[in-house]
Amino acid sequence: MDTAILRNRFREQFGTSGDLYFSPGRINLIGEHTDYNGGFVFPGAVDKGITIEIYRNGSRKVCLLALDEKEHNYVEFMLDDSSKPEEHWACYVFGVCKELEKRGVSLGGFNAAITGDVPLGAGMSSSAALESVFAFALNTMFAGGRVDKFELAKIGQATEHNYCGVNCGIMDQFASVFGREGCLIRLDCRSLEYEYFPFDPKGYTLVLIDSCVKHMLGNEYNERRESCEKAVAAIATQWIGVESLRDADYAMLDSVKDLLTDTDYRRAKYVLDEKERVLAVCDALNEGNYELVGQKMYETHWGLSRDYTVSCPELDFLVETAQECGVTGSRIMGGGFGGCTLNLVRDTLYDKFISKATREYSLKFGITPKVYRVVIGDGSRKL
Ligand code: GLA
């Protein structure tokens, strides 16, 4: 990303120059809504994200300029303030400061300017990128890098929980901090063990199609999590040692079916199905069987749409169009309720698919979807 504009605006606003830091957004090949159920996910960082310029100002004040916000783009708060700023975007930074301080980092004031090229509300985790870039930069500036990368990811997650009202899992922040060029990460969200998987499917391309339905995760996301927790609570009354759906199987779930609403039962069943799909995809990747990977992506999509109910007509339409076109795999990516589909497309079909999907989507919904080819990049860093 060209940082010249960021540099100029920072100098104009604050009269100095500072250091540049970057954290990426992410994709997720498979393993959706499994992270807060203690399951596996398969994310990778992308080459798009949030860049900041930042400089210590020697006071207790934090001054933030968000270049991409049209209004209310300048916010100040004191590190000792107890209530968060009104501007939603600034709450992420406020939360990260508080969470770092909770972990014993003694911060000083700073000036920062923020910009990004990861699309907002498209399911590519722009918010995790924002949290991670501040967690990484402030850790470097005020703690000599002492806070480890796991904790940086947890700081971002805790910011979502405590300051932004989203009870998310760890996947997005983990991918943003730990990303590695050319690799997906298989992360076990219960133990936080992880493994890098080089991902270079010869003859295939990963591409995102943005429905342009903006999503903001909040209550509806939290409700999905609550459904899973209710299923676990019911199972735990009869089976010792079940702490999350990771520990549960179909027999356990079926044994408590009568105690659950149909909605909660179907959501929990989706999670069990997805757990199996992630493992099948790992094997398929090891064997280079991308057609099987793609088949599992479709299964995930329809599970998310019909059982987990986090899709919308626009996303279902994009997936149906992919299916009609013979695309290898296609599904909602991320939390859902809008944002992008992730598509695994044979190179020979790529142009045909993109033109059919954009044309038919525009005709039906009156808006041209955006297309992003996925480039898997590195995680949080100083530039
Ligand atoms: C959002 C959350 C993640 C994860 C996904 C769904 O991106 O932030 O923790 O739950 O949704 O897989």
Written description of the protein model:
The protein has a domain at 4-199: Ribosomal Protein S5, domain 2, CATH 3.30.230. It is built from eleven helices and 13 strands. The chain has helices at residues 4-14, 88-102, 126-143, 149-163, 171-178, 219-236, 250-255, 262-286, 290-307, 313-325, 350-365, and strands at residues 19-28, 40-41, 43-56, 61-66, 74-78, 110-116, 183-188, 194-198, 204-210, 329-332, 340-346, 370-373, 381-382. Helix 10 (313-325) packs antiparallel against helix 11. It starts with a helix and ends with a strand. The structure holds alpha-D-galactopyranose. Alpha-D-galactopyranose is lined by residues 32-33, 35-36, 125, 168-169, 171-172, 217, 334-335.
Ions, cofactors and other ligands present here are: alpha-D-galactopyranose
Task: Indicate the proportion of strand residues.
Answer: 15-25%
Strands of the widest sheet, in order across it, are 5-4-6-3-1-13
Rg estimate, integer Å: 21 Å
- The CATH first-level class of the domain at 4-199 comes to Alpha Beta
Kindly, what is the distance between the CA atoms of the first and last residues, rounded to a whole number of angstroms? 11 Å
Low-confidence stretches: none
Class from helix and strand fractions: alpha+beta
Helix share bin:
40-55%
Characterize the largest beta sheet: strand count, sense, and whether it forms a barrel: 6 strands, mixed
CATH architecture of the domain at 4-199: 2-Layer Sandwich
Instruction: Kindly report the CATH topology of the domain at 4-199.
Output: Ribosomal Protein S5, domain 2
Give average pLDDT, whole number: 96
Overall form: globular
Number of helices: 11
Count of β-strands:
13
Q: Encode the helix/strand succession as letters.
A: HEEEEEHEHHHEEEHHHHHEEHEE
